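Suppose a colleague, Dr. K., hands you the sequence of a protein chain of 82 amino acids and asks what its three-dimensional shape might be. Before reaching for any lab equipment, you can write down a predicted structure in token form. Begin with the sequence itself:
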Amino acid sequence: MVLTEQVILSQINIEEMRSNMGDAKKAEHSHYFTGRPCKHGHLAPRTTGNATCVQCARTHSSKYQKEKNHKVSLPGKTLYKN
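The predicted structure, expressed as tokens, is then:
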């Protein structure tokens, strides 16, 4: 995700996001933006549920989906034993 002024997440512009999780939760927002990179170097909003960087969550999700789809598409393999 490229961070620009045009990025809108959950109908809230990044400039309007709260800067910490506590304030975001009080305002009932689902995301907040600290302006600091996560431990993997992404400069992206974080979720208030678990403080996960949005980019890290997307990366993890896409890796999981690729692994899941690869397992399902293996020819001649059964995923479950009866």
